[in-house]
Amino acid sequence: MTRILVTGAAGNVGRTVTSLLADNPDVRVRALVRDAIASASSLPPTAELAVGDFTNPDSLDAALDGVDAVYLACGNVVGQVDHECTVIGRAAAAGVRRLVKLSARGAEIGSPVAFWHWHALIEAHLTASGIPSVVLRPTSS
C-alpha cells in the first residue's frame, strides 16, 4: 500500500486531491494541516491528519515518516520558495520515492510575475534534489 502526504490539504486543490486519493483502496493518504480540528470536517475520515507547518521542520519530518510520495502545494505567499524547498529537502532525506509539485502555467526564472519566478526556483530545486517528480502547470480555458 502506498502512503501519500498531501501538503496544503486544507486548501481548495489539496482538499480535492486528498478526497480523490482517499477513494483509492491502494492508497493511504496523510494530510498536512495546521489545525486538525478545523480541517477534520472538510477532509475524508480515512485521511490521517498530520499537524504541521512549512516553517516547522520537525513537524515536516513527522509528516514525512513512512511516506512513499508527496503532493506538494502551497499558497502563493512570500515564503513559498523557502517553504516548498524545505519540504523537498526533508522529503529527499526521508527517502520519498516520488514528488508531485503543483506549479504555475508561466513558471520561469526571471519572470516579472513574482509567483511564476518562485515556482521556477522551486522546480529547479526539485530537479536538483534527485527525487523522481512530476510538475503540474495548470491552465484555465
Structure description:
The chain is of the alpha/beta class. The protein has one domain (2-136): Rossmann fold, CATH 3.40.50. It is built from five helices and six strands; from the N terminus they run βαβαβαβαβαβ. It has helices at 12-22, 36-40, 57-64, 80-94, 114-129; strands at 2-6, 27-33, 48-51, 69-72, 98-102, 133-136. It has a six-stranded parallel sheet with strand order 3-2-1-4-5-6, sandwiched between helices. α2 (36-40) links the parallel β2 (27-33) and β3. α3 packs across α4 (80-94) and α4 (80-94) packs parallel to α5 (114-129). It starts with a strand and ends in a 5-residue tail after the last strand. The mean pLDDT is 96.
Main structural class: alpha/beta
How far is the first residue's CA from the last residue's CA? 36 Å
User: What's the alpha carbon Rg, rounded to whole Å?
Assistant: 14 Å
CATH class: Alpha Beta
According to CATH, what is the topology? Rossmann fold
CATH superfamily annotation: NAD(P)-binding Rossmann-like Domain
At CATH level 2, the architecture is: 3-Layer(aba) Sandwich
Q: Order of strands in the sheet with the most strands?
A: 3-2-1-4-5-6
Helix content: 25-40%
Spans of at least 5 consecutive residues whose pLDDT stays below 50 are: none
H/E topology pattern: EHEHEHEHEHE
Largest sheet: 6 strands, parallel
Query: DSSP strand (E) fraction?
Result: 15-25%
Shape: globular
How many distinct folded domains? 1
